[in-house]
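user: Kindly work through both lines:
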Amino acid sequence: MIKTEEMFYAGIPTFMGGDYVAIENVGNYDVGVLGVPVDNGSSYRLGSKYAPRAIRGYSAWDRVDGQICHDYDTNSTLQSNSLRICDLGDVNVWPGNPENNQKATMDVVEKIRRKAFPVVLGGDHSITYGAFIGCKKGCEKDKVGILHFDAHNDVEDSLLTLPDVWHGNVFRKLIEEGHVEGKRMLSVGVRGLVNKEWYDYANEKGIGLITSNKVNENKVSDTIREIHDFFKDCDGVYVSFDIDCLDISIAAGTGVPKYNGLRMGDVIEIIRSLKGLNTIGFDLVEVNPEYDKNRSTTLLACEILYNFLAYGLELKK
């Protein structure tokens, strides 16, 4: 018998080969995947709007179907989750109206969250604004935290003619508008030089910081412990993963790449460890296919998504 799922180059490129469904049918699945193909919140290199399509194409290799695997890296046997995953396509995009894009993202993610676990594919990091608000509304939890993987704080202010919410201020907006408390947000992978004003803002609001140096210099188990301790009083945790938290040497295909980043092996361990956090939603942003000429950044994004869904997600009501 021909195993059609191995013919990754054929058919419609839905995420992990999942069913392409309308929002009304998302309740028949464990995970609902949504693309938000926008990059009008980018301050530097445009092109992240092409990422949802690129990620879907590479994800065709993967399935989360309860397979038993041996992990050479840890010399251990692992059994993946068995999840029903569907793809809802992309939100309707208004290229000249970022506010409409945010509202559309909010509305669809809220509907997904009420019936299934939302995975959102960006796009630039501004999409986390609508995705987080929609997810929080959909799960109806008060004490929700944000686990933020990124090279940058993303707590700047307005910038030139960019939209009100852009990829450099998305978390400042969420905090200032009361959607999340700073003390319930943890940024992992931040590094390099930053305007001291934004560093002071993060401290003032109580945002937790685990620098890239700290992760790279310590045991990854220490980072995992710190993450779990930070969120111990939260009802749920939303994960926002900016691919630029990885080092530029392995993830150059992004909007604002940076040196001295996280190592992929450490990231995979951390992602797999999220099982006990009661994660309520996950987005992956800032993959930029225009600068990902050998597609290695897209491949790493798919590895992160696979390891989260297969080993790092524990579905809870």
